[in-house]
Write the structure tokens for this entry.
Amino acid sequence: MKTVTGFASATIGNVACGFDVLGFAITEPGDEVILTFREGSVEELPVSITSISGDRGALPRDPKKNTSSFVVLKFLEYIRTHKGIDFEGHIELELKKNLPLSSGMGSSAASAAAALVAANELMGRPCSKMELVQFAIEGERVACGSAHADNAAPAILGNFVLIRSYNPIDLITIPPPKNLFCTLVHPHIEVRTAYARSVLPRMVSLKTATEQWGNVGALVSGLLTSDYELIGRSLVDVIAEPKRAPLIPDFYKVKNAALEAGALGCSIAGSGPSLFAFSSSLETAVKVGDAMQEAFLNIRDKLQSDIWVSPVCKEGAKVI
Ligand code: HSE
């Protein structure tokens, strides 16, 4: 018998202008997955779920339907067919969910990433982190019906990750500027990713696309040159944000509160309802969080929220 625990933190997809092609990881909160390998005991499937905590019973317990066990099944299949690694035994999976569901914080990607680093360790590290990303992306399809990589890739690799291409997958990690801090505010409502994707336009005009890719290029340049002003100017999303803003009560008031408190920029975290803001000092990032929380409290139904202030996580998913 051998036990390994994996941890992966929250991630923020899109980063305003980079819909489905840019995301980053923060240092906390995160999900934990504990895998126990029992030699010899062969069951119908090589992975079973023994417990899930923190999800109020919302997540599937069927190993083929739960993201964290599904990605481990895919990983085991891959190492058997591609690396010649087979085993006689069974893996029990325990998931400690600390990330809220349907929050825009990369909850499903964190569970998948934590499970994958633990499984890789359990099997003697046959795969690189880059190889693990493909299974985490498949996990997203199980979780929300779309295999987007902008949460899954940074959940495993850390840093900012730019998805240059999906087919074939081509990922570029971008280390964060030294003084970049993220404020993440999670209002206590749920927005399902599948729904938030259904409100997006199928087509965009050339004018809109031009504006968007100008900002993506500039944001990447700002990150690489630590140009905080440029980062702020580039956090503009003319495609997803206008369509998703109505799903978040008083989105524009909360965003303005962040900007007035000194944030470089602010937008929807992934598919929402959380918002993220960047600041160039920890002190400002804390102030920004207070202002955003206050703005949510001031709206008609006094929406409660949680705040996390964090640098960008450089490490990615890890064994703890
Ligand atoms: N890129 C994804 C979306 C992120 O915007 O739907 C989901 O968190």
Remarks:
- The domain at 181-311 is CATH 3.30.70.890 (Alpha-Beta Plaits).
- The longest strand covers residues 22-39.
- The chain has ten helices and eleven strands.
